Amino acid sequence: MGLHPSYVVGVYELGVKILESLENDDVSRGMLVGEAGIGKTWLARKVFELAVEEGSCYMAIWLNLGKVLDEMSLYQDIASQLFLVPEKEESEEDNGGDEDNSEDEKEQTIQDLIRLKDEIHKELDRKKLSCEGTKYLLLVLDDEGSVTNEENVMKDLHLGEFLAPYGPIKIILTSRKGKGKGKGDAIGTDGEIGSHAADIIDLSVFTRSTY
Questions:
Q1: Pfam families given for it (predicted)?
Q2: In this structure, is residue 210 part of a structural domain?
Q3: Which candidate among 28, 85, 96, 208 keeps its CA 20 to 30 Å from the CA of 164?
């Protein structure tokens, strides 16, 4: 069964409005909050796609916070979106994983993470320098608070500090009602996102990020 045309149009129009609001220098983050199944992730994906298509951002990164993330898996995810292939994968299979807890392996993991971060930095440098005008880096944190939260990713896993040189950074979060714990709900979705989506969501409460 296909989606009703008014639903598709409503999501597209709201996506455009959100994208326009992100062009404001005083706006750097927003949150889509609502019950499960109303279309928060789909709307965030539409903004993500539009930002890339319209050239509003020089890079867009999508992170699913509905799963457990550690520092290595986080940066491997980002590297894959930058089409960077970690060099460690083949050697891990060769070692067979017999000494997972050895000091040598721990040291190797640290070195692999340092190398991976360095490659990501180089690629972000290249993308930022190659874009025309002042464009932002878009970061979407989907399903925030369900398993992993914004603070864990941005502070505990050091992503805020890691991305700081590549600003301005615009953040969009999606969260189920009562799950997110950011400073205020930048966007509240209390009903179905459809033809009247613009009346449901208040774009005026987009805020500045603390990262």
A1: NB-ARC
A2: no
A3: 85
The 3-state secondary structure of the chain, one letter per residue: CCCCHHHHHHHHHHHHHHHHHHCCCCCCEEEEEECCCCCHHHHHHHHHHHHHHCCCEEEEEEEECCCCCCHHHHHHHHHHHCCCCCCHHHHHHHHCCCCCCCHHHHHHHHHHHHHHHHHHHHHHHHHHHHCCCCCEEEEEEECCCCCCCHHHHHHHCCHHHHHHHHCCEEEEEEEECCCCCCCCCCEECCCCCCCCHHHHCCHHHCECCCC
How far is C-alpha 201 from the chain's CA centre?
20
116 is a domain residue = yes
Query: 163: domain CATH number?
Result: 3.40.50
Domain of residue 99, residue span: 5-205
- CA-CA distance, 94 to 147, in Å (whole number)? 33
If we measure between CA atoms, which residue out of 195, 175, 170, 196 comes closest to residue 187? 175
